[in-house]
Amino acid sequence: MNATTETLGRVLACHQGRALPIRSTFALSEDPSPVFAIAPIKMVAEEIVQAIAFGDPDGPPQVVTRWNPLSRDAGDLEIFAAALNDYVEAVARGDQLPRFWLPHRSALTVVELLGHRYRTNQMASDSLRRMGWQCRAIAEEATYGGQQAVAIAGEILRAHVLTGQAPIKDGHLGALLAWVAPVAGRDPAEVADEQALVPASGVLERSIDDRVEGLRREAKRGRGPVAARARAEIETRLTQGALNEWELLLEARRAFWSLGLPEGPGLGPLVAESKRRSLYRLQQDLNPPSRPHSLARLVDDHEYAADLAEDADVRGDLHVRELARRKGRALLAEVVRVEQPRSSRRPCYVTLRTTQEVLRVRQGTALRDIGGRVEGRVEDVWEARGATLLRLELTRGVQRSRVPVVGDVTDWVDTAPHDLRRRRREVHDAMQAAASPLVYDQGVVGVGTSGSPSVDLLAVAERLRRGA
After folding, report:
1. Cis peptide before 347 (omega within 30 of 0)
2. Could you tell me if 377 and 334 are in contact, meaning their C-beta atoms sit under 8 angstroms apart?
3. Which of 15, 135, 195, 271 is deepest in the core (most CB within 10 A)?
4. Distances from the Cα of 371 to the Cαs of 185, 273, 312, 317, 356, in angstroms?
């Protein structure tokens, strides 16, 4: 979406007094059962957890609090670690897609830091180290394009709607919800301004946070009933803060599903990839890739995920496809000829006719119909009678039940993803076996004879610069 279109959309949303959908389909698959939600409260400027509300969003949450989060004692997190592992084991037994709901990006950062702090911490218990690698797996899955396992409420709402306020205000989940689920009889702009006064980034309100910090000093200095009362009040205030964050997450989740959009037809491959990646990582501790071959595999995985996400968006969403059409990456065409000497066998050639002015199609371009049933490669392109004709050799969908019929008019897109990871892994394995010093930076032999003094390349370069 360009800046002009976005501005006009925000003006229209302001005029109508509610957020406007900018997609025709959901980019997230339906919630599986069960779902695990996480709503943490952190210390301001410390990124350290002091409370977490978690559990099934369709039921009451569990809450753990840490009256002294800077302490090395992390036993308070054992309950969260056990609940997270129980959920992972349940979805693994059912071979289901795990789904983690978080309110905003800040919450994911907290989860990621839990992973870094406890995954390899030898002073932590086995259950906390397991929680560490599971939290890290959640954060890593969230980095993949089109992933379906981690739903960050604020970000996924912004990807589906446009509000009537400045984009920077959309970063506040409460202000965003004022437009997505407007209060009857009230101006959403006023409600959004009111909501923006309350933090929505996983921290306590300023006055409550100051009170908690003061109570911590009392709890650390005092003994007996005084310290006990201070700790009890800290836990009460932290519990309420976590429950407020939990309610904000639930409201955002309800508002998202209340948009009432159909599920995108291309989400199946994204769900399958997310399930494969996340279940594998959630059940075992894996060291982050650091060698050239493992880093190359990681890049390939991300590249393929991005291709799948782009294809699902363009084929499954009218608004996204219209944007692709304006760039020439999608075209509306009529089938004017079908050549197939043997029914349901290759070769099969289809000639398309389009009057679209903007095209980014040339010989070799792979095109597929929006249903994903037929795919072909452009063999020839030519102009005739004010239209563009394209001859495709079908590589997929040559069966009689799938081959297009003369007269069919449909959209074709150039986003067909091709999974080359297996072949690339063979290359990476060969690269690993060869262990070239130029790639792996080991065993490199210096230039020059044994015993000769080393050459100062900087000095040589300086002499050359001066013309000496």
Report:
1. yes
2. no
3. 135
4. 43, 19, 10, 12, 20
> CA 377 to CA 115: how far, in whole Å?
45
Q: Which contacts qualify for 377-385: CB closer than 8 Å, 24 or more apart? A: 379/349
Q: Which helix (H) or strand (E) holds 52?
A: strand 49-55
Per-residue pLDDT reduced to its tens digit, 408-423: 999 999 988 888 878 8
Helices (H), 30-77: none
The three state secondary structure string of 154-212 is HHHHHCCEECCCCHHHHHCHHHHHHHHCCCCCCCHHHHHHHHCCCCCCCCCCHHHHHHH
pLDDT confidence of residue 453 = 54
Tokens representing 439 are 């790639």
DSSP H or E stretch at residue 49:
strand 49-55
Q: What is the DSSP string of 339-394?
A: E-SSTT-S--EEEEEE--S-----TT-EEEETTSS-EEEEEEEEEETTEEEEEEEE
CATH of range 289-441; options 2.60.40.10, 2.102.10.10, 2.40.10.230, 3.10.20.30: 2.40.10.230
- The Cα–Cα gap between 375 and 394 comes to 6
63-99 in b/e form (b: 16+ CB < 10 A) is: bbbbbebeeeebebbeebbebbbebbeebeeeeebbb
Which residue in 271, 261, 212 sits closest to 238, CA to CA? 212
Q: Which helix (H) or strand (E) holds 236?
A: helix 225-257
Is the pLDDT score of 108 beyond 70? yes
Is 251:64 a contact under the CB 8 Å cutoff?
no
Model confidence at 468, pLDDT cuts 50, 70, 90, reads low
pLDDT bin (cut points 50, 70, 90) of residue 246 is very high
**Residue 149: strand, helix, or coil:** coil
For the chain, domain boundaries: 3-282, 289-441
Give residue 407's region: left, alpha or beta (phi > 0; psi -120 to 50).
left
Distance CA(312)–CA(181), nearest Å, equals: 27
- Residue 85 makes CB contacts below 8 A (sequence gap 6+) with 127, 130, 131, 134
